[in-house]
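I am writing to request your help with a piece of structural work I have in hand. Thank you for your consideration; the sequence and its tokens are set out here:
=====
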Amino acid sequence: MHNFDETIITKAVIERIADTRDPRLKEIMTSLVAHLHAFARDVRLSFSEWNQAVDFLTRTGQTCTATRQEFVLLSDTMGLSMLVDAIDNPAAAGVTDSTVLGPFYVADPSERPLGADISADMQGEPLFVEGTVSTTDGRRIAGAVVDTWHSDDDGFYDVQLPDLSDAALRGRFRTDADGRFYFWSIMPRYYPIPDDGPVGDMLKATARHPFRPAHVHFLIAAPNHATLVTHVFASDSPYLDSDAVFGVKDTLIRDFTHEAAGVAPDGKVMSGAWRRLSFDFGLKETRIRPS
């Protein structure tokens, strides 16, 4: 077949991939071609606009580094990350809602003992974080791995601070025999996602701000349970209703309560005011228990 025009090109491309061996890949590619071509027809895409899109995607790739994933940022700000998350992790009774991983997760953070301070002496309001990890029917999970990370008092993550020699405001904990974990840090702040690259250009062109509300990230894993990726958002933070990456869910908003000087839950004596976050997490089981 030759002389491909607007009316036959889509069918021709789909026929070319008809022999794809992997059935799932064939399904995805066939749908991708059909929708992509339909989009181009719908908006009557010009070659100049197509070139601009290629340039944008090229710059997006060139902006990626070991500590910055511009394509993840693009997916997040287009709402695609949260759409895929919603498809892959539908709401279920007893299971904590998930949200986006974000671009600042660092795999295999240093494991710390319960009650440790992960602030690395960074300045800010002291924050005590405590929680439990349970199954959907309320049974506590001992030994669950809890990775956590968040921004500093100025809205930056440690990987964005070149002067830091060690990790800060992130760590790994394991729940105790009662399924409980707790640690100290400092209050996170709302912050702009990196907007000095192509994603930032897109936000400016579409009259959007780059800000995310203050939150603490959690990645929680336990044998025979689905890994949970989520945040807990501060109820008094701005941008809860306009998060740049569409990650806020009502069930994930909590009061980071104001506490007076005195003895904290872990026995630590606090000479001044501090904040407290309490959250109980539920994990989805992936193995059916014998009756």
